[in-house]
Amino acid sequence: MSDVRRESRLRGTTRRQLLGRGIGLAGAAAVPAGVLAPPALAQESEETDALERLVELELAAELAYALAAEDGDLSAEATRAFELFTEHCGDHATALSEALDQLGVDPPDPGSDPADYERLADFDAAAALPEQVEFLSALEDDLIQAYEEETANLEADDLVRSAAQIGASHAQIRVALAALGGKRG
């Protein structure tokens, strides 16, 4: 995993960014207590399928943001934002993976190549900011829609709450991307 994906950067971070980070982490930290007791037998279910889909999308987003921050033709502001978004997606993937693990199902392994993810087939890590914003905005739209759809398949109240919080975090990222791209909302 790259330094960009692991390193937390607080220098030059605004209060709004810190609050946004707190909201994202709140969603990640809200792993349901009821899920922490391992089941006697692991069972695939609509709930575990939903969690697997969400983890897969979070991992794809984490990788895309990390590679864009490293290789993209970006301003310092965009690079910092993408690094922050990398961290958020990683936190979300970790929290949901832990929930899957507690349900007795192995979570998807993180890929290190965009080819590992169908959703990143057209991703160009070296693209300029406008192309990055366009691609990543569409990815965020997919994440928001996935959280909308998959929340209905979650059974534990804490998982439902976490999914709603994480989905809202992606809506905030979507707005931030629009602002980076010079658009409002």
Keywords:
185 residues; mainly alpha; Ferritin; 6 helices; globular; disordered N terminus
Write up what this structure looks like.
The longest helix has 27 residues, at 76-102. This protein has a single domain (46-180), classed as Ferritin, core subunit, four-helix bundle (Ferritin, Up-down Bundle). It starts with a helix and ends in a 5-residue tail after the last helix. It contains 6 helices and no strands. Mean pLDDT is 83; it is low at 1-19 and 21-41. With 185 residues, the protein is mainly α. The protein has helices at 3-6, 15-29, 46-71, 76-102, 129-150, 157-180.
The top level CATH class name: Mainly Alpha
Q: Please, what is the CATH homologous superfamily? A: Ferritin, core subunit, four-helix bundle
Q: How many beta-strand runs? A: 0
| Class computed from helices, strands and strand pairing | mainly alpha
Task: Write down the Rg.
Answer: 16 Å
N to C succession of SSEs: HHHHHH
The profile of the biggest β sheet is: none
Low-confidence stretches: 1-19, 21-41
CATH architecture: Up-down Bundle
For the termini, the CA-CA separation is 32 Å
Count of all domains:
1
Determine the mean pLDDT. Answer: 83
Helix fraction?
A: 55-70%
Percent strand: under 5%
- What is the third-level CATH name, the topology? Ferritin
Estimate the global geometry from the Cα principal axes.
globular
Helical segment count:
6
